[in-house]
Amino acid sequence: MSTDTKQVVTEEKPVEEKPVEEKPAAKPAAKPVELPAFEKSISDKVVEKFGDKIQVEFVKENRVGIKVNRENVHDVAEFIRDGLNYDHVESVSGVDYPQDKEIEVVYHIGSYSDSSLAKQILVLATRAQREENPIPGKDATKLPTLRDIFYSVEFHEREVFEMFGVYFTGHPDNRRLLLPEDWADLPPLRKDFAIKGR
Amino acid sequence: MLKDLVTPENANVFIGKLGDILEKAIDKPLGYAINWGRIWSLWPVHIETACCSVEFGAASSPRYDVERFGIIEAFGSLRQCDLIVVQGTITRKMAPRLRLVYDQMPEPKYVIAMGACAITGGLYFDSYNVLPGIDGVLPVDVYVPGCPPRPETLIQGCILLQEKIKRMKARKFV
Amino acid sequence: MTNELPPGLAIQKVDERIMTLNVGPQHPGSGHMRIIVQIDGDYIVACDPDPGYVHRGEEKMAEYRNYITNIPHLERPVIHDSCNVLYPYVLGVEELLGIEVPERAKYVRVICSELNRCIYIMYWLAIYGIFLGHSTMFMWPAGDRELLIDLMEKISGARVTHAHFVPGGVRNDLPPNFEEVCLRQVNYFEKRIKEYAAVFYDNPILISRTENTGVLSREDAIRLGTTGSVLRASGVDYDLRIKEPYDVYEELDVHSPVMKEGDSYARSKIPWLDMLESCNIIKQALQKMPKSGSVRVKLKPNPKGKGLDSVYKRVESGRGSLGCHIVSDGKVEPYRLKLSVGSFRNLIALPYLLKGEKLGNMPSVYWSLNYWPVEADR
Ligand code: SF4
């Protein structure tokens, strides 16, 4: 757990000093494009609630990207559901970053019940620690599950578990889904797993 | 005369020889009849393995209507089938099941490998979960290339199989 | 390696009274997957779908191929809906590269996509029909489907795997005279599918078999994150062609059908209504399409993204919303590509719908989910 916290600190340091507003504005600085207002209001709401615990990655048309570290992902997701009216997760994708020693898990969250949010996708990204020699389920590559908040992540998280070896603590059914039962290699979507002849 | 020839010692040999002679005599016409019957009742197992099954389905649609050739009659039970059309990619999870299905079928049985995936792995030649062709799993009789093969190609493959069966021995002698 | 299984991979214990049945993968009612059902007498008490029999590692292989060679790959999950399954990828790559598509290409894309939607739904309907033991409903859609396949063959040259959409437009222009042929075929097609109501949808046997089986309430449909016809059959009006219009759907008049019941009957009727709507859209698009003009922006060979970037694009496919998440790191290959497909998202509803149903209703409930296993497994 000690390595765990160290990781987070190093990760958060560079973005701590009031970058929350700056980051999205900095990107389109070359050509002065107005940030879409409605999307901005959504990201502002999250920033207002959580302050510097989160980091706004991008604000594009219809997409708001938020980055959280793994301690807060559960709370932020809860706020997204209760405070912002998002109600289902469309996709959960893992992205492996071997050079950062981290695996990013990206939730694409949408809303059916709130018609003003119908276009919007909230991209919630969080990172888990990555081990060189993974033992799926037993090493430190763990994240809290969001299944109790968004029920629809159930199969998606099972998929991320087998494809990346990210164990979701609290998920009741972390079994294999797509891979063969006797799969004993690395989780296949990690970058260090090479396919035949490549 | 026959009585003199047959002694209790050589009875078995003699009867076996007689059987051979008889079989040789009627093998051709009988074999022809058996094979003729087999040609017109090639019933495939209903096992879909990947996307080629779309064109397999299209082949039994009214436009192509393979059943007029007496070949692909839909939905037999596994124990009454004698043809297995491998419709595309065989993954590592599917391969043991495919073999299990094949082993449960009664003799004689024929295999058609449909699609590039079933022949060599096709587009998925470097995937981590796909077998490079099904030759390691099943003995294939006819290969039908294409990705996916058009229904006409499948029909031609079935007709080739019929030709092949005509030339095969109907019975195996012991 | 120890013999001990990691948490979660351990085998679950089952009640002794309850019988476990494996349906599939060799089973007429299951397609390319296995459904493990536990039955008590004739009633299903639990159901555990076991997909993955066609898992071919598309997402991994996409990381080894450049943006253009990925095109034929990414349509393989649903070859009979190949334009729609490629659509979000193409839109995403266009956004990554910052390409603007010519107006005519957008219309051609919409026409192709709607034709493909019909082709997909007709195949699904044929399968649904045969699994309910309704042979006419296999023959009719399987035959009428060929009409539209002919049209797509005229456009792209292939029966099912078109690979017609490319970043920057479509591969080829429409063939000469296409508009008239298309209009004629689509009109005939529309007339044909209206006849299905008499044979299938108003058929009392079908109604008694599918009504009130596998009811999914509106709340559950939202909570489970279902999509497409499953969602719209439960009374949620959500169609990306209207809610988040891509390409030229804004300029067209789209009404997507919604039903309130949420049972198998509603779920099987929505796709049929969808097809009628598709015919409508095709006719509108043919009318509004610019009569000439370029259909493709030529790209430089081996296009690259601009540094670390990610997009998430989605379209409404035959099975519901289909999203494509592309992460690029400025190389010629995507860094990570994820398809979020309707079939996979709808699969989560299966255990809910089957609980408490009779085993005999399983095929009708399962196929009404508009599920295509190859897509779900990727
Ligand atoms: S040959 Fe082509 S169509 Fe057939 S299973 Fe392989 S990828 Fe699919």
UniProtKB/TrEMBL annotation, chain B:
Keyword Thylakoid found: no
Listed GO MF terms: 4 iron, 4 sulfur cluster binding; metal ion binding; Methanosarcina-phenazine hydrogenase activity; NADH dehydrogenase (ubiquinone) activity; quinone binding
Swiss-Prot/TrEMBL keywords: 4Fe-4S, Iron, Iron-sulfur, Metal-binding, NAD, Oxidoreductase, Translocase, Transport
A Pfam family assignment: Oxidored_q6
The NADH:ubiquinone oxidoreductase-like 20kDa subunit domain, residue ranges: 51-159
EC assignment: 1.12.98.3
One annotated Gene Ontology cellular component of this protein: respiratory chain complex I
Domain of life: Archaea
InterPro entries reported in the protein's UniProt record: NADH_UbQ_OxRdtase-like_20kDa, NADH_UQ_OxRdtase_20Kd_su
GO biological process, one term: electron transport coupled proton transport
Family: Belongs to the complex I 20 kDa subunit family.
UniProt protein name: F(420)H(2) dehydrogenase subunit B
Species this protein is from: Candidatus Nitrosomarinus catalinensis
